[in-house]
Amino acid sequence: MLGIINSCCCLGMDTNLVRVEVDVSPGLPSFTIVGLPDPAVRESTERVRGAIRNAGFEFPLKRITVNLAPADLRKEGSLFDLPIAVGILAATEQVSREKVAQYIFVGELSLDGTVCPVPGILLMAGNIVRESAGSTLIVPLSNLEEASLVQNISVLGGSNLGEIISFLRGEGSLHEGISDFAVEKMNTLAKTVSNGYPDFADVKGQEKVKRALEIAAAGGHNVLLIGPPGTGKTLLARRLPSIMPPLTWEEALEVTKIYSVAGLLPKDSPLITTRPFRAPHHTASVASIIGGGRIPHPGEVSFASHGILFLDELPEFNRDVLEALRQPLEEKVVTVSRAAGSFTYPANFTFVGAMNPCPCGYLGDPKRECTCTPHQAQRYRNRISGPILDRIDLHVEVPRMELKELAQSKQGEPSSEIRKRVIKAREIQRERYQDEGITQNSDMHNKQIKKYCKLNKESQDLLYNVFHKLNLSMRAFDRILKVARTIADLDASEQIKSIHLAEAVQYRLFDRPLDTGA
To answer: Which of 173, 241, 304, 395 is the most exposed place for a label (fewest CB within 10 A)?
Structure first.
């Protein structure tokens, strides 16, 4: 007898429908799975056998063949346990084959028949709405809230195999998707602020650096902090999320899908409501930062989407890691190619780097003498290549503060006040670009820069003089215009004025000749 069950799986950020075909025929007892299964799928034979028996159903002592179609699509994970078990019961007429054909099944089984949660449910539920309109998705009860985030989909949750089979026999019921759950989460999201992050009120002084970080948050600009050890580079960077605007619903769903696919979604929340802050160690590999594996999984650049990727001690990172950042910094996506296929993940993050000015860390420090030669200092800076520096909008010096200055400084401005200005600037940008397919100044392309960054004669002369004096690249030229546009938005100015442009130019520290103090 043959049982056919509908299921699905994730490959990268795409979802594919999978037809689970189960044939139970006379012969020596065996259990074979074909259709490019990975080890986790092949091991489901033991989980399914134990789950069926312990749930009180009959496991056939016959020749069982399971085909996961399409056969040329790689299958990985334990999410096919439930559809295989239901397929066996349908093939042996312990449940109606016509009834099971109305549903799409996803779930892992434990040996006692419990249906365990699986990663990627949100992505699968969202794509099923598009590909199989009208289908009902049956998922583990632990994944029900996550699947309920997708509107206009019928979803049911079961806690164990016996409960699901009883429902298919018409003898019981399953938990239904929570109505208006997405609307409830949208309302919660609108009130969410980054309360979990440190506040700028704790930081005294460093007003110029705070201003640069405010500009970075307002326009989504990448920023590099340069200064001696102990000046507060990391302290300031870790407070940047506290002034970022709340996630929009679309941004929150995209971030949640990434974490769901990777199996990193918090158990206590089916939706990521705050902007991510990722700070990998400088010993991290290319695969962990960009994404990789035999079948590529997302990396830190994807986990930081719509949030911040912070690389402390930037020159200490492997050069291959830094050079691999070129594509995501420019294109806001990352494409990882392996023998199993090519996978594209979102990588729309704000980059923040921190570094010392030289190997000893004290170049330009008024209190401690630098022991590095000019050649050593330049070689240290050269660990950050020109193309990477070109993609960083703001190069900000973080100077050492005197104890006297710290004692006299008032408490810093709270993050809540800075955030208000950032949100206002973002609203101006969102309205400006509503027909352009972007939401912030850092995403502008050449055509949009020409349209929205027009300069008067005075500003043009200033920018052209800077361009020739510093020998800027065209990319650096465009990024100065983007930063100037953000500064103008913070001033609620429709026109980019020379004062806005002058402030943007001063944030190009690495475009100036190296001052060794000699």
So the answer is: 173
